[in-house]
Amino acid sequence: MLARLTEGLSGRALILLAVLLVVLAAAPFFAGDYLLTVLILILYFAYVGQAWNIMMGFAGQLSLGHALYVGLGAYTAAALYVHYGIGPWIGLLVAMPIAALAGAFIGYLAFRFKVGGVYFAILTIAFAEFARVGFDHLPFTKGSSGLFLPVAQFKHNDLWHLRGQPVMFYYVLLVATVAAFIGCRALLQSRIGYFWLAIREDEEAARSAGIDTFRYKMIAVVISAAMTSFAGVIYAFYYNNLFPEQVFHISRSIEIILGPIVGGVGTLFGPILGAFVLTGLAESLTEGLHAIGIDIPGAKQVFYGICLLFVIMALPDGVWPWVKRRLGLSERAP
C-alpha cells in the first residue's frame, strides 16, 4: 500500500513532503495564539479545497455551492449536540450521510437531465441558497437568531466532544488534511480516478469508450459532499455559533474554491499550497494594515481578486505546477 502511494514520487519530493509534515506537526510548539489561529484557517481551507477538487479537479464538475455541505455538516452535528447531547463524532456519522444524500440528489437531477457546465454550477448555487433560506426559518436550528454551542473553559482537551483549546483543533485538521491528501492520491491512482480524468477531459469520448459517466460523476459528488461535511462539523465546534446567512452564503463557497484554483485545479498538492498562499498572505495583509492603523473595508476580497487575476494571467495552471518545475520534482509528483 505504501509503495503504491509513493509510486511516481522522486526522492526529493518525498523528502520535501516529510519536512513539511514535521514542520506542521511542530508548529504549535513555536506559534503564538494569532499564528496558530491562522494555521487552523489554512488547514481548514486546505482540507475543504481537496474535497472540492475531487469534483472539479478530478471529475470536471464545477460546484459553486459547496457551502451547502459545510452547512449541513455543521448544523447536523451542532443541533444533535445542543438538543440531545450527542457528541460530534457520532453526529458526524449522521452529518456525512445527509450531505452525501444532498449531493446525490443534486447530482441525480443534473446528470440524469444532462445539466452540465455553467448550468450545473448555477444549480449548486441554487441549492445552497435554498438551504440558507430554509435554515433561516427552521426553529429546530434557531433560525436567523443563530445556533449557539455551550462553551466551557477546559484545562484539558476533550477530543471526544471537541471541547478544548485551539491546538486540539489544529491537530484534528492536520490529521484530516493529511488523510484527505492520502485518500485523494489513492483515488486518483485507482480505476475510479482514471475514469474521472477521462470524463474531465472529454465526457463524450469517455462514454463512447464504455465508461458509465453518470455513475462515476455521482461517486465524485457523493465523496466530495461527505468529505466537506466533516469540515462543517469542525467549523461548528471551533466557532461555537452558526448563522445561516454566514454558513451557507455564496462567499463561503467562493472561499472554498479559491485555494485549489490558485494552487492548481486537478493537482494533489495544489489545494494545500493555495490555502497557504491565499490565507497566509491575506491574514498578513489584514494584520499589517491593522498594525499601522488603516482599516480598508473589503481589503481581503480585493487581495483575493488580485491573486486570481495574477494566477490567470501568469500561471494559468496554478502555482503548484510552477513550483514543481522550479524544484525539479517528478512530473508525477503531487
- The dominant shape is globular
Radius of gyration: 20 Å
User: What is the end-to-end distance?
Assistant: 17 Å
| Helicity range | over 70%
Short characterization:
This protein is an all-alpha fold. The chain is built from 15 helices and two strands.
How would you describe this structure to a colleague?
With 334 residues, this protein is mainly alpha-helical. The chain has a domain of 222 residues. 72% of the residues lie in helices and 1% in strands. A two-stranded antiparallel ribbon has the order 1-2. Helix 3 runs parallel beside helix 7, helix 4 runs antiparallel to helix 5 and helix 13 crosses helix 14. The protein starts with a helix and ends in a 7-residue tail after the last helix. The relative contact order is 0.18.
Q: What would the keywords be for this entry?
A:
mainly alpha, 72% helix, globular, two-stranded antiparallel ribbon
SSE layout:
Blueprint: H1 2-5, H2 11-26, H3 33-58, H4 67-84, H5 88-112, H6 117-136, E1 147-148, H7 166-188, H8 191-201, H9 203-208, H10 213-239, E2 241-242, H11 244-247, H12 250-263, H13 270-291, H14 299-314, H15 319-327
Antiparallel strand pairs: 1-2
Helix pairs in contact: 3-7, 3-10, 3-12, 3-13, 4-5, 4-6, 4-10, 5-10, 7-10, 8-10, 12-13, 13-14
